[in-house]
Design brief:
Arc Repressor Mutant, subunit A; homodimer; DNA-binding; 3% strand; Four Helix Bundle (Hemerythrin (Met), subunit A); mainly alpha; 2 strands; two-stranded antiparallel sheet
Chain lengths: 246, 246
Amino acid sequence: MKTASPATPRQDLSAQIAEAIRDAIVEGRMITGERLPSEAELAEQFGVSRSTVREALKRLAAQSLIRTQRGAFGGAFVNRLSYEGAYSQQITTSTLLLSMNAVSFETACEARYTLERACAPLAARRRTDEYLATMRAEIARQSQPDLSDEAFCASDVTLHRAFVDAAGNPVLSYQLAGAVEAMQPLMNMITFTARSRGEIVGLHTALADALEAQDAAAADTALHRLEAYTLTLGRDVMASRSRHGK
Amino acid sequence: MKTASPATPRQDLSAQIAEAIRDAIVEGRMITGERLPSEAELAEQFGVSRSTVREALKRLAAQSLIRTQRGAFGGAFVNRLSYEGAYSQQITTSTLLLSMNAVSFETACEARYTLERACAPLAARRRTDEYLATMRAEIARQSQPDLSDEAFCASDVTLHRAFVDAAGNPVLSYQLAGAVEAMQPLMNMITFTARSRGEIVGLHTALADALEAQDAAAADTALHRLEAYTLTLGRDVMASRSRHGK
DNA sequence: GCCCTTATGAATGTCAGACAATTAAAGGTC
DNA sequence: GACCTTTAATTGTCTGACATTCATAAGGGC
């Protein structure tokens, strides 16, 4: 049946088939939850072997466009692409992009805080007690002197995500997830002294206070100062790294 | 050799292998441009068949973590994850998220313009003649009355991406690419009247003027008004859609 | 009739082996 | 040295088989 596309043998068959199915999903010809034909049927439809179809399906699964289920009445189903799924993909891509050293600490830092500041007006307007409580709790945790650097960073991420979520826009949260989480590996390289922790906790407190008072300008200021301070910390690490060779 | 992980048979072998290789790449044990062992070698190393390895590799290829080359001295190579690659993945994920109707037009619109406004201060400070010229050119195109709605939307995207790129931060551009491009399918549903086009072109001109004058506040205002206007247009479409069934 | 156990069949997951297609490099010819 | 041919390595594809999973149907005990 192979329709023999005239001059498109540039890609693998599996890539072409993956693309065809992806288009069907994106264009709404297949709806969420719908079951794809079985691998054997797809193989026949596209005029290829089952292995080729399977490779195509694995490509789609890697983008979490479909999920597969074994057993009777199993098969491949169109995924809903939940926010969580989108988040994790977003984070994976962003982390990759940064970890491949194509991006300087300065650039990543600037992007992250610029985006975060964008949330400030919405967060100040919409913040609920729930998110405020999360931020306060993380600030308390960050004040414990026996906290490891990794745990401090993780808490930092949690706090900032609470701030972003307080803006009450899931698409914004999704976009920011990448920016905030992807910075963590870079932040993890920083050894936090007691003094720098104190400084950061102070700025976090200012941020939480601003949100509580629904003062967007104050939140903006706190984030500006946090960016500046993070930048100096990061620069120190980068400088000492390049001094000690690689 | 199968190390028989104690209690992790939750995933397919191909997914496990993909994850193992992905970790190796992310953690820097494999560097950009490096060649992976051949499929046959990987199959032996992991104690699985070649098909299983291939499925794992397809998963990684779908995330553009690797690229494959046929022939002698071919194989799978660790990809650099260029900005373009990251862009397109970002766009795919964002588009999917929006197109699956899990997101309202209002939410998407708010997120998009909130993020774009975040770029205003940087863009106003750093804008070069190049990006200004691109914006002016797109405004001129949008003023042509015989332009199709699709072309109008595409030009809109180009203009807004020029604005974002003017901020001079590639990470920011990458993050925004998703927000801006993913809106296009939603915008494409809008039929632009001559009046609405005029309104939009006027706001675009105000945005370009603000950038030229390096006036961040004016750019912010223009984007606010653009958001408000886009929202009314979108609401009209949604309303008429729900009236006419479906 | 009701519940528990046991087939059954359809589907994915995995394997093994084969061949085709591609490609860079080595070797040969002039 | 330039050009052509061979070669070997590697991915791409196909075929057929078996293992595994799992909802449903069938059967048996009470």
